[in-house]
Design a protein that fits this description.
- This is Pyruvate/2-oxoglutarate dehydrogenase complex dihydrolipoamide dehydrogenase (E3) component.
- Keywords: Disulfide bond, FAD, Flavoprotein, NAD, NADP, Nucleotide-binding, Oxidoreductase, Pyruvate, Redox-active center.
- Belongs to the class-I pyridine nucleotide-disulfide oxidoreductase family.
- The protein is of the alpha/beta class.
- The chain is 34% helix and 24% strand.
- It contains 14 helices and 21 strands.
- Strands 1, 2, 3, 4, 5, 6 and 16 form a 7-stranded mixed sheet that branches.
- α1 packs parallel to α8 and α3 packs across α6.
- The protein is globular.
- Bound molecules: flavin-adenine dinucleotide (FAD) and nicotinamide-adenine-dinucleotide (NAD).
- The site of flavin-adenine dinucleotide (FAD) has 37 residues, from α1, α2, α3 and α8.
């Protein structure tokens, strides 16, 4: 049994673990990185990257069908589903070197490719080795939940871990779950020529502002995706035509079943209890500094039981590095944007309207600017969507955007909210014309317009000054 002593041991080489390991090693710490599966974790191999590559192919196919208004003859694209999957695989392969064992070893990290399991508060067993570290970071991510619906164990179930490897085009994909995974996969598959039914349980895209998610869901429905809301999948049966799913009074028969019903933290191989690390149903219990009940052990990313995003895992890494390497107090902030990469994209930062109303009551002002007001959107013939801005006491407290490239647009607001900027800063910034983010500036300007243009005081002051000024 080899014993390894190190400053920092990171368990899991996904978005969170890789960022911790790279940062700490480059700043001089001795780092051991433990990974049982593929380097890069879920985001690279079965999450963000393959889903965005599939959506890109689907977008290209849809553009061929809908380009008519721009004066180009639309055609129904010929889709080679296996070749689309080759594009997905090539995208992963192009990014993989950045997350590879070789790159990390080049940074001086010792990489162990096996399961890690705590055997004491300061020791992790990894195969035939025992790692003792001054600090540990749990970055083991999450796994898809397959709900125990009666009959589900009698059919083949696809999850995000298997769907990207499917090379034959499904006839009819039934998706259980209307969260970001279900909705992104629904639009991607529909545009690639698949009949799609989503069983969304209570509501589709429930974490977003309903006014904005209605725009996205309306587009999916217009493209032919059937979205059933208000009934959960209650039974699954194999049948001669494929798989039958019962939801409310509907029985939907599809050829393939994707389960996108949420994710649970991946802790079953880790034995956190052996390290005195407390766990709840949501994940590892952490404080605002991401420390667990064992002060030597931190948790980041999906394993930490909060929101599940790659950019959050990366941000968590910066929080724990500050604490582990420099012993500085460090706290995770609450302002995390999220984007669903449908067309139009759906982006959110800060409070939704409902949350802002609850927090700020009558002090809340809501500004709306339709995407059709953008010259750029008009030029490109993509005018569907809305920018919605929540303002309290002259400061932006939340922004919801459904628009082409909403994920790019929300960056401006992420900066504004994170820096506590006043709305006048956004209203006063000079942006290039014609860009979609002029809509953001216009939304900010809409807050000031009535104060300037409809104010008797301003009118009187201007008229008086015009008489007095030389
Ligand atoms: C289909 C899909 C699309 C997504 N799209 C986006 C998106 O567009 N944008 C976004 O921000 N987020 C997206 N996400 C979420 C994102 O993928 C996750 O939030 C992110 O991967 C979390 O990173 P992580 O480091 O916490 O965990 P992971 O990336 O899951 O990495 C954890 C790693 O730990 C390893 N591991 C687990 N247990 C052990 C153990 N005991 N010993 C050793 N190794 C272990 C696993 O093998 C894994 O490689 C998507 C998710 C899915 C499913
Ligand atoms: N673009 C992105 O950033 C992106 C994309 C995909 C996933 N993600 C992340 O991955 C995580 C997992 O996504 P997800 O969509 O799997 O989970 P989710 O928890 O967001 O949504 C799952 C949905 O499935 C529904 N559901 C559960 N059981 C059901 C049943 N029996 N019948 C019908 N509906 C049922 C739930 O009501 C819920 O709305 C999310 O937290 C998200 O943050 C992010």
């Amino acid at each position: 049994m080899e014993r390894i002593e190190t400053d920092l041991c990171v368990i899991g080489a996904g978005s969170g673990g890789l960022s911790v390991a790279a940062g700490a090693a480059q700043m001089g710490a001795r780092v051991v990185l433990v990974e049982a599966g593929d380097m890069g974790g879920d985001c690279l191999n079965a999450g963000c990257v393959p889903s965005k590559a599939l959506l890109a192919a689907a977008k290209a196919a849809q553009a061929m069908r809908t380009v008519g208004p721009l004066g180009i003859r639309p055609v129904e694209p010929e889709i080679d589903f296996a070749a689309v999957k080759d594009h997905v695989a090539r995208t992963i392969a192009a990014i993989a070197p950045h997350d590879s064992q070789e790159r990390f070893e080049g940074l001086g990290v010792r990489v162990l490719r096996d399961w890690g399991r705590f055997v004491s508060p300061a020791e992790l067993r990894v195969g035939e080795r025992t790692v003792t570290a001054r600090r540990f970071v749990i970055a083991t991510g999450s796994r898809p939940v397959v709900p125990s619906i009666p009959g589900i164990d009698r059919v083949e179930v696809l999850t995000n871990e298997t769907i990207f490897a499917l090379r034959e085009r499904p006839e009819h994909l039934v998706i259980i779950g209307g969260g970001p995974v279900g909705i992104e996969m629904a639009q991607a598959h529909r545009r690639l020529g698949v009949r799609v039914t989503v069983i969304a349980g209570h509501k589709a895209l429930p974490k977003d502002d309903p006014e904005l998610s209605a725009i996205v869901l309306g587009r999916l429905r217009a493209e032919g995706v059937e979205i059933l809301e208000g009934a959960s999948a209650a039974a699954v049966d194999p049948c001669p035509e494929g798989i039958a799913v019962t939801a409310g009074d509907r029985r939907i028969v599809g050829s393939h079943l994707l389960v996108a019903a949420g994710r649970r933290p991946a802790l079953e191989r880790l034995d956190p209890a052996a390290a005195g690390v407390e766990v709840t149903a949501k994940g590892v219990k952490v404080g605002p500094d991401l420390r667990t009940s064992n002060r030597r052990v931190y948790a980041v990313g999906d394993a930490a039981g909060g929101l599940q995003f790659t950019h959050l895992a990366g941000y968590h890494a910066s929080v724990v590095i500050r604490s582990i390497l420099f012993g500085l107090p460090s706290k995770a902030a609450a302002l995390i944007p999220h984007v669903t990469y449908t067309e139009p994209e759906l982006a959110q930062i800060g409070l939704t309207e409902a949350e802002a109303r609850e927090r700020h009551g009558s002090r809340l002002e809501v500004l709306r600017v339709p995407v059709s007001g953008s010259d750029r959107a008009q030029a490109e013939g993509a005018t569907e969507g809305l920018v919605k801005l929540m303002v309290a006491r002259g400061r932006p407290v939340g922004v919801s955007i459904a628009a082409p490239h909403a994920g790019e647009m929300i960056g401006l607001w992420a900066m504004a909210l994170a820096s506590g900027a006043k709305l006048s800063t956004v209203a006063g910034v000079v942006l290039p014309y014609p860009t979609l983010n002029e809509l953001s500036k216009r939304a900010a300007g809409a807050y000031f317009s009535p104060r300037l243009f409809d104010s008797r005081l301003v009118g009187t002051a201007v008229r008086t000054l015009q008489r007095l000024l030389p």
